[in-house]
Fold these 4 entries.
Entry 1:
Amino acid sequence: MSNSIHSDVQQTVRVGSRRFELSPFHDCWANEHTVMGVYAGRYYSVFNGEDITAAYWALRRKAALYDVPERPVEISGRDAVAFLERVFARRISSLKEGRGRYAIACTPKGGVFMDGILFRLAADRFWYVQPDGALETWFHAHSEGFDVTISDPQARVLQIQGPTSFDIMHAASGGAIDETMGYFHSGFFSIGGQQVYVSRTGWTGELGFEIYTQGEATDCPRLWRHLVETGEPHGMVVSSISSMEIRRLEAGILDNGTDFDMSMTPFEAGLDAFVDLDKEDFIGRTALLDGSPGTRIYGVKSAAATPLYHGAILEGDSDVARITAGAWSPYLEAGIGYARFHAAGSWAGKTLMMRTAEGETVACEIVELPFYDREKRIPRGLDKTIP
């Protein structure tokens, strides 16, 4: 097991379920070994008793099916585009129907409040797929003066990730999902006789798809059975978040609230490319114009140990950073993770020391993110080399 926040199954507590949402797919995968977490007010599987390394290699070489807790929020109405331009730091008007775009919402002081994927379902209808946090409340707070409706579509999200995911989705959709569906493309498809929303996106850095249910209109157990039956000939396994966590670290995918928070600007989080400062009047723009660039999040790699969650990174006797997530990478044959430095600087290329779970210190290399596939050739389908 890794040391990251998603993979620590040793410290568990019993939690009442009244305030949290159990997945409609829960009975399809839960077993006596399942350990649950809560994210976006929804339970999800942190660990299901599986061999995490075997599940990781299935993800890299075949495919893995995940029931994930991200929560879509719907924004619709005559002023939907104008409202979203105000809320997000990235330009929205140029987003085409049937496409998705990574977008960041900032606080008035320029901190990262939320990050996620915005999909344009129609001219005046959008879904923003959020991680944990009070996004819907934030939207309502800033909606005054805009003719928009903010609602919960009650959609649940499945991910099928890995190199055979296209073959699985092609078969599951009766051939409707084909090579014309590019990276970050999306649309409504019939999967096993049920209409769902499908996007070619994911949280693993692999070729993959996300499937969004349609509230009570979706028979979730039937959808799950169809996907499992279709995926089995292509080597698909069912996994918990633990194997996904390893791969998202390799791919340099950050987790809001874990790796960065409202105290950090997009620049400090290394997300400069997703801020359009030439766009007028979005929340946080003035603060970002006055802010100084400089990255505080870097990769950390060590052949000696897995980076310890919240463990210290030392430069000499000085504590210069903390680990926000860590795991053992079977592909890189090293412990990897993210180091959040107390101050921005040119940290990449340095060899520092990190504290281990045993209280020892070992050498670690500080690197730029991601650890490999910087051009995203794997999820774009351009690199089909299987490790």
Entry 2:
Amino acid sequence: MRRAALALGCALVLALGGCRRVPEEPVGPSPYLRSLWLPSVGPTPYDWRRLPGRVVMVSFFATWCFPCLAELPTLEALQKEYGPQGFQVVLVGMDLDGARMLQPFADYYALNFPVLVSDEGMQQGQSAFGLIPALPATFLLDKEGRVAGAWQGMAGHENVSKAVEKLLRR
């Protein structure tokens, strides 16, 4: 009987709008990190569950993009230098042929960071990153998964290094 009265009382309070729900903190990874729940290709293992708590550099590229290819040595050097400190480079391929084009690319270059295959939604701008108007496009995410920096076109190693070091110290 007591439970029924309590339930009725709660229902009445809710119906009258007397109870306000306290907004909850977002649960799980940021929308940017969730956008990276994509399949990977190539020899470097990828587990999106290891990204939260790390500084993540997301570079959108295509195999036909010469500036993207020219930037690969910089990305590899950054991963080698800062990876042990909690930094992760993630390459997202925007090739329309997807894995069919990216798999041989990733195997040939054997990069020291994962290569992800974008989906059709991402290619149409339906992700937290929005539309990627030019390649390469690079986003630097802090340890909470928030965008802390962005570059369009090739980014200089020195400028990116400074930004990465600053985020790693936080």
Entry 3:
Amino acid sequence: MASPIARPPRPRGFWQRLDQVSRDLAPAALTVVLVLAMGVPVGLPAQHGVMPVPALAAVFFWTLYRPGLMSPLAVFGIGVLSDLLTAAPLGLNPLLLLLLHAAVLTQRRVLTRQTFLLVWVVFALLAAAVLGLGWGFRTLLAFRLLPAEPALYELALTVAVYPALSWLFVRVERSLAAAG
């Protein structure tokens, strides 16, 4: 009996390719929007010290659940944008976000099978490590001991808003999966 001949896939049209590219860029674009939103001055004193760091949550979530959509290049670009908006030493946030990205990739197989509560705890620990490392680098670059309170506030707010951001990311991920 002859086996059926496999037909070559139909070439995809311009609109289908554009649709796929937009789906692939959605997580990074959403992260950029969140970073830009946190950079908008709202008139709070010491605003940068009391704002959550949505880039940490986004890089953590997308690297954990859809690593193909959060490439190291996208993580680097998000970090550079964050440096520019927060007047951080250029290269600090890309380094920290790439370290987070690598840490999540190494534990991805274990974490994807865990409950939300455990994933949230792991996020809190990784966020503490990343923000603590960032505070340490800033202290070294300033040649003086910087106050730790702003970093602690950033950590507390970032961990506190993770469930809401995660809910948003899950909705986006489901819409990407349903439409694709």
Entry 4:
Amino acid sequence: MIFDLIKKRRSVFPAQYNDRPIAKSDIEKILEAANWAPTHKKTEPWRFKVLMGESKEKLGLFLSYKYLETETRPKQVKTKKLIENPKRAGAIIAICMQRDPLESLPDWEEVAATAMAVQNMWLCCTEMGIGCYWSSPGLIKYMGEFFELNDGEVCLGFFYMGHYDGEVDQQTRRPIGEKVDWME
């Protein structure tokens, strides 16, 4: 049932991933789910760049070098994490948004549509038993140096994916009643 799937969705991080590869056909299915997200004025702003194999390692090296280049007091632990996390992932999907060239709607609506596409991916991964999470480090502002981005296209983060062993932690939420005002 969809409510159970939504409650089961979790962030599963690269440190939890095992070495089992993710089939390209599974990634294609996940991306197809993303493509059915709602989109105002049918702009379909989501764009994805799938990194597998050596391209994951190249991303890690780029991020670590960019971090060392831009950080005044770089931390060795963070540099190592930037290198290692991409290697641990079965695949990484760069989450990009292509701005409507006519700017016929506000930027936030394009970001929201892209985020809904990612939620579809996340739910699909949950159903398939693939761990994932959306990382949006400050370094994404430099991704135009790593990827060929079109005019008006921006990188919003990385969707790390990997198979994992065991269970993920249960989460709780404060009651929805604390977050809703009923007006009649």
